[in-house]
Specification:
GO terms for molecular function: ABC-type transporter activity; ATP binding; ATP hydrolysis activity. By secondary structure, this protein is of the alpha/beta class. The chain is built from 41 helices and 25 strands. 51% of the residues are buried.
């Protein structure tokens, strides 16, 4: 450890310099060792994690704990007797003890302290290692469960997993420290009781009886603490889950101006959590006052002894005092702490078991070992296939897929009510090279059918047989944090030729050219820094890159425009994957003309199947506006394809790696705070209370309480000396003085007790108030941060602040700070008391203080760095777990579970390496401080024998007992001061996010007179608008100038990445704007963000629903009536469906609204917009995820409900904007064209004409006709000749 300490003192330690983890801490082997034991345990009626731990690890920790406790009890029994012998040597007029005996007694006292120090730290280090191994093994089990959890296993499983890992499993790091204390206290009570009885008779039993009477209270306290902990853990889970949802949907929350509504939700949960923490804090505060109990026990025994008529001697006083102090520690401090800790561990263990018993993905038969992650049982070929279930055989010669009368439901099996099937009676077959299309309305069961193929959903009846390897693209594209290449390759090996052909087929070449680092560009968690179309195509490329036999696509064309959709269909599905089985769910029915087989789903049933020509008429209402494209002329498409082929060949020439770009790699890595925790952090912590006088008062209480206790200790030693001297004139005078002594003793004791209680409860309640305020500041800092912050910081990093760091500030920090303050006043008091007994002892005290200071100076730098590194290496564990939940269907379908498990084990190993170093540093520091304290005890003990001077026996006893308490005090106190500083890094991390640059104010300044009904007309004007995501970034929008008329309908078109969505970012002021945007003549830069955002309605690209009721999702502020909500739902044709749900408007949304289909979620977002009744509506590719019928419904609703509004529509489907008043064509962040679509189509070589011409002739005619008819309708009084000509063309 020496080189770690010296380096840590000179410079900041870095996570890259960590040692390799020890083989005994290898996460993977520990998990694999525990896995079969857990499987055996989980089959029992009521599985128990604690039973499992004792069965597997019993011999690793129980025998050594028994041996250690036996040694400690022996030392504790002999040391006070040796002290008594030494004190007797100094008694007035004694002759029985020689100087040699006195030296032997002194040697015995010092040896007892030395042996304790030499044995204690190796023992504690050993039990830490056992606890850590158990935690790592259990975390591995939890992550394995995450990978295997059923898609329908309920809400918030991701945040629950993070909560279990970060809070419950970390309990195992601590709990084994206290195992031997479970029996040590009661055993010591029996032994010490017997010894004391031999010393002063029955009066000693009064003190022990007082301690024993308090034990039931301790038992109650332990039970109550466990209750409060489970309550606070429950509320913390709710809070972290809610924060997870808020961070995931932060852009939508900002655009809806819902920050305050979610702030109230978080505050309500936080209040409940703090209430539970206050309960456990009160218990902890009461336990902190237990060191007064030994004083009260001594008081009761001495008073009884005095009134029986016996003489109090220094020897008796200090033997009793030592035993009561030791009993106080073992019976009233460590024993209850052991019980409380193990009670908390039982609660945590039960929560881990609850998580590990979540329903898993349904099992299946496998005729070969397909997926190494899911350990499927081998099925012999002789066995007859089951009537019901799923058979998946990868290595079959003939690749095929068959459904036989399949019904499946997302609902969990329940005895109360029958499950509602989401698909029923489905029968069809698909052959090895068939292209199968699946169409149907929103909510008809298309995605459910794919999940049945994947085995993600439990079959109620029927049989699914899959022969071949599967690859799958989910409806919501999953992109994880990593480079674009890593996202595409995922777990497959790199093949240059295939990779290039996939990039080309998935139309990603142009995007990669535009990105600064090509396919090495790192994208954020959930792909935040990409447009919807880019995410969809990267997810598609991942699916296609995997070598498989059966490819499943869940509407990957939804987020791409018509031209790209056509190219993908031809290049990717028809050419690259020809000869493979392809199953495509899509709403773009016109693209399915060349599929081999078509399935039509309605309300979960397969109503029609056959070729495209057979079903052409039936599916007409699912295709709606696009059916004109049936008789396609392929010439135009071929021309476009050949042109793209040429450009792609030119751009696929390998690019040289640019070394300068490597510096950007870690631009978004978590910043490690450096150096000592600044005094400013401590000031900010106490300033959060907002009452400096109260802080000073509570801190003054520490000094007063300790001063009072010191006075009492000195008083007892002087009283014992006075009794030994017996210099009194008469018995009456002796009795009167004794009575006075007893009275003073009683007063001092009561004052000390009162001050201790005030000090302790006052301090903890002050800390709780501070942590409440800090959490509020953190929430405000996060919710008001710029969007750029969320683009570069993964959710795990932010959630770490809300889980682990807030947990530290709530609980760990106040405890460490309390111990540190107590330690400081205790050390000063001890040194003063010892100096009063023998002023020469100030010299070794000064030397000791200097050595301790040097030790701490050497240790604190390394410890602080290691603690920060340990915190930082925890974040990737949570981020990785969170990302796994976002994409677990994709992960399982790609057989990627073993690789993701390896990544998780890697994160765990890095963290355990940091934790091991941190604990090693702690133990080394404690060991050396103990040795320094032992040297000081040696100096104090022998000083009375060496210095040729007369000493009172009372002073000798007081000095030695006080210096002996210094050992425990120093090694605990010095560690706690370091622990406090380490926990202050959590305050630092919370303040770092709480004090981030925030967006402009939410409220409009009074100087801007904003009318209540603004905007009335919806007249937009953009003047030289430039927009970038962060102040130092390049411009995304480059000088936009355009103006809309009031109530105008504007379509915004352009290829993916042209800057269409960035216009919305600018309009909602989510990024850095330069130039002006005016609405009804009002510059939006002067407005408060709430006033601006609440007056513009948005239907976002990704429809977001939150956990809670449907009513909350429609109107979180509770401003609208139920009638208004039902009316809005009727407008979007959801009233019938919502009425059928339990509770109607009060029905619960599952995680992210997963109990609604994608299209239904989009309709809920439309209902929100109707409820808001704003004059400006923005639609961000809102119809991308819906079928044509729902698309038509949305368009109709917009024409009727939003007729008096200005509507901006960002669209991929050109037909949705061709009947708009104007179309704005974007490319590379600039406006290329703006005007009436009909007029723009008259321009030879115009940008809109080029986009339209990329379709087949029939579609081109159809789009031109829509534009012309719309133009005629809007300009009835104008000349119609040019329009007629276009219609004739």
């Amino acid at each position: 450890m020496g080189n770690v300490f010296t380096k840590g003192r000179r410079e900041q330690l870095d996570a890259n310099e960590l040692y390799e983890h020890l083989p005994s801490f290898d996460s993977e082997s520990l998990t694999r060792h525990l896995q079969p034991h857990w499987e055996q345990e989980s089959r029992k009626k009521s599985p128990s994690l604690m039973r499992l731990i004792f069965r597997v690890y019993f011999w690793q920790f129980v025998p050594i704990c028994v041996l250690y406790s036996a040694l400690e009890i022996a030392i504790h029994s002999f040391q006070p007797l040796l002290l008594g012998g030494l004190i007797s040597y100094f008694a007035q007029g004694q002759t029985t003890i020689s100087k040699e005996s006195a030296y032997l007694y002194a040697m015995g006292i010092v040896l007892c302290s030395l042996i304790t120090s030499l044995v204690f730290h190796p023992f504690m280090f050993y039990v830490f290692a056992v606890g850590t191994r158990i935690r790592l093994a259990c975390a591995g089990l939890v992550y394995r469960k995450c990978l295997r959890a059923s898609a329908s296993s309920g809400e918030g499983l991701g945040s629950q997993a993070i909560s279990v890992m970060s809070i419950d499993l970390s309990q195992f790091d601590l709990t084994f420290y206290f195992f031997h204390d479970l029996w040590k206290g009661p055993v010591e009570a029996c032994i010490f009781g017997y010894i004391m009885y031999r010393q002063i008779g029955w009066t000693s039993l009064i003190g022990i009886a007082f301690i024993v009477v308090l034990i039931p209270l301790q038992a109650w306290a332990a039970k109550a603490a466990a209750h409060f902990r489970s309550q606070s853990a429950k509320h913390r889970d709710e809070r972290v889950q809610l924060m997870n949802e808020i961070i995931s949907a932060i852009q939508v929350i900002k655009m809806y101006a819902w920050e305050k509504s979610f702030g109230r939700l978080i505050a309500a949960v936080r209040q409940l959590e703090v209430k539970a923490i206050r309960g456990s804090m009160s218990i902890y505060a009461a336990l902190q006052c237990t060191n007064m109990i030994s004083k009260i026990s001594l008081f009761l025994s001495l008073i009884a002894y005095v009134y029986v008529g016996d003489v109090v001697t220094a020897k008796k006083v200090f033997i009793l005092s030592s035993y009561y102090s030791l009993l106080n520690d073992s019976l009233l401090h460590y024993w209850p702490m052991a019980i409380t800790t193990w009670a908390q561990t039982l609660v945590s263990a039960n929560r881990v078991v609850d998580f590990l018993q979540q329903t898993e993905k349904p099992t299946e038969e496998g005729c070969c070992q397909d997926n190494p992650g899911l350990q499927l049982e081998m099925q012999s070929e002789k066995e007859k296939p089951l009537k019901r279930g799923r058979l998946h055989c990868v290595k079959s010669e003939v690749k095929s897929l068959s459904f036989k009368n399949v019904s499946a439901s997302w609902e969990k099996p329940s005895t109360k009510q029958r499950r509602r099937p989401h698909i029923h009676g489905i029968t069809f077959d698909a052959k090895s090279d068939q292209f199968v299309g699946i169409v149907g309305n929103v909510g008809s069961g298309k995605s459910t059918l794919l999940h049945a193929i994947l085995g993600e959903i439990e079959l109620m009846e029927g049989r699914v047989e899959i022969h071949g390897r599967i690859s799958y693209a989910a409806q919501q594209p999953w992109v994880f944090q990593g480079s674009i290449r890593e996202n595409i390759l995922f777990v497959e090996s790199y093949d240059e030729q295939r990779y290039r052909s996939v990039i080309h087929a998935c139309q990603l070449e142009r995007d990669l050219e535009l990105l600064p680092r090509g396919d090495a560009t790192v994208v954020g968690e959930r792909g935040i820094s990409l447009s919807g179309g880019q995410k969809a195509r990267i997810a598609l490329a991942r699916t296609v890159y995997r070598q498989a036999d059966i490819y499943l696509f869940d509407d990957p064309l939804a987020a791409v425009d018509a031209q790209v959709g056509k190219l993908l269909m031809d290049k990717c599905f028809n050419r690259l994957l020809s000869g493979k089985m392809r199953i495509l769910v899509t709403h773009h029915v016109q693209l399915l003309k060349h599929v081999d087989h078509l399935l039509l789903l309605e309300s979960g049933a397969l109503t029609q199947q056959g070729s495209y020509d057979q079903l052409k008429d039936v599916i007409s209402h699912h295709a709606a506006l696009d059916l004109e494209a049936i008789e396609a002329d392929k010439q135009q498409v071929k021309r476009v394809l050949s042109q793209v082929d040429r450009t792609s060949k030119m751009s696929t020439k390998s690019k040289e790696d640019d070394p300068s770009t490597e510096q950007e790699e870690d631009a978004h890595a978590e910043r490690q705070l450096q150096g000592a925790v600044s005094f400013e952090t401590y000031k900010s912590y106490f300033r959060a209370l907002g009452a400096p006088f109260l802080v000073c008062l509570v801190l003054a209480m520490f000094i007063l309480a300790r001063g009072c206790q010191a006075a009492m200790d000195i008083f007892i030693s002087r009283w014992a000396t006075w009794e030994e001297d017996r210099t009194y004139d008469s018995v009456d005078e002796y009795d009167a003085t004794r009575t006075k002594m007893v009275t003073w003793y009683t007063v001092l004791l009561l004052c000390t007790l009162a001050l201790y209680l005030l000090r302790t409860f006052g301090f903890f309640f002050m800390c709780l108030r501070i942590s409440l305020r800090l959490h509020d500041q953190l929430y405000q800092g996060i919710i008001r941060a710029w969007m750029h912050f969320f683009n570069v910081n993964p959710s795990g990093r932010v959630l770490n602040r809300f889980s682990s760091d807030i947990q530290s500030v709530d609980v760990t920090l106040p405890q460490a700070m309390m111990d540190s303050l107590q330690f400081l006043v205790d050390v000063v008091a001890v040194l003063v008391i010892v100096a009063i007994a023998n002023y020469w002892l100030l010299i070794p005290a000064a030397v000791m203080a200097l050595l301790l200071y040097l030790c701490r100076a050497l240790y604190i730098g390394a410890s602080r760095s290691l603690k920060r590194i340990e915190s930082m290496t925890r974040s990737p564990i949570y981020s990785h777990t969170n990302q796994t939940f976002h994409g677990h269907t994709t992960i399982r379908s790609m057989d990627a579970m073993p690789q993701l498990e390896q990544t998780f084990y890697g994160h765990q190993d890095t963290n355990s390496s940091a934790l091991f170093l941190y604990v090693s540093a702690n133990r080394a520091f404690s060991f050396w401080t103990d040795l320094i304290c032992v040297v000081y005890i040696l100096a104090v003990t022998f000083s009375f024998l060496v210095i040729n001077q007369k000493f009172y026996s009372g002073d000798v006893g007081l000095a030695i007992t006080q210096s002996m308490t210094l050992v425990i005090m120093c090694q605990w106190g010095m560690r706690q001061t370091a622990e406090m500083e380490n926990n202050m890094t959590s305050v630092e991390r919370v303040l770092e996010y709480a004090q981030m640059p925030s967006e402009p104010p939410l409220e409009t300044p009074a100087s801007v007179k904003l009318p209540a009904e603004w905007p009335q007309a919806g007249h937009l004007r953009f003047r030289d608008l430039r927009m970038r995501y962060a102040p130092e970034d390049e411009d995304i929008l480059r000088g936009l100038n355009f103006e809309s008329q009031p109530m105008e309908k504007i379509g915004i078109v352009g290829r993916t990445g042209a800057g269409k969505s960035s216009i919305i970012q600018a309009l909602f002021r989510l990024a850095v704007n330069e130039g002006t945007i005016e609405i009804d003549g009002q510059d939006i830069a002067q407005l408060g963000l709430h006033d601006l955002r609440s007056r513009i309605s948005i239907i976002p690209q990704d429809p977001v629903l939150f956990s809670g009721t449907l009513r909350f999702n429609l109107d979180p502020f509770g401003e609208k009536s139920d009638a208004a909500m039902w009316s809005a739902l009727e407008d979007v044709k959801l009233k019938k469906y919502v009425s059928s749900l339990d509770g109607g408007l009060a029905c619960r949304m599952q995680d992210g609204g997963s109990n609604f289909s994608m299209g239904q979620r989009q309709l809920v977002c439309l209902a929100r917009a109707i409820l808001r009744q704003n004059r400006v509506l923005v639609m961000d590719e809102a119809t991308a995820n819906v079928d044509s019928e729902t698309d038509g419904l949305i368009q109709e609703t917009i024409q009727t409900k939003f007729a008096q509004c200005t509507v901006l529509t960002i669209a991929h489907r050109l037909h949705t904007v061709m009947d708009n008043d104007s179309v704005l064509v974007m490319d590379a962040g600039q406006i290329v064209e703006f005007g009436a679509p009909h007029k723009l189509l008259q321009r030879p070589g115009g940008a809109l004409l080029k986009l339209v011409s990329q379709n087949d002739d029939a579609t081109v005619k159809y789009l031109k006709r829509i534009a012309a008819e719309s133009y005629v309708r809007r300009n009835k009084d104008g000349s119609l000749t040019e329009v007629d000509e276009t219609l004739v063309e």
